[in-house]
């Protein structure tokens, strides 16, 4: 994530409140955060201080093992050339329908 990405529409926005004890919870939209592999958070402003200190961010949920799929190499042709795909075992036949 870069600062250019921060201008995009976020999946969810939270209005944070000061929480010196660390008891506040912010519910997420479950449909938006299912099967998340990477999470980036952007804090555009703080509560009037010059700097911001974040001591803890806790995430609730169920852990599931990531299923990594192998890389598939595919070639796509806008207009295929049948001469490039000749098969030796296929015998060309013609059929007439009257």
From TrEMBL:
Q: Name one GO cellular component term.
A: cytoplasm
Residue stretches of biased makeup (Basic and acidic residues): 1-11
Q: What is the designated name of this protein?
A: PITH domain containing 1
Q: What is the lineage of its organism?
A: Eukaryota, Metazoa, Chordata, Craniata, Vertebrata
Q: Where is this region: Disordered?
A: 1-20
Q: Which domain of life is it from?
A: Eukaryota
One Pfam family hit: PITH
Under the heading Gene3D superfamilies, the entry gives: PITH domain (2.60.120.470)
Species this protein is from: Chrysolophus pictus (Golden pheasant)
Q: Which family does it belong to?
A: Belongs to the PITHD1 family.
Q: Residue ranges of the PITH domain?
A: 1-79
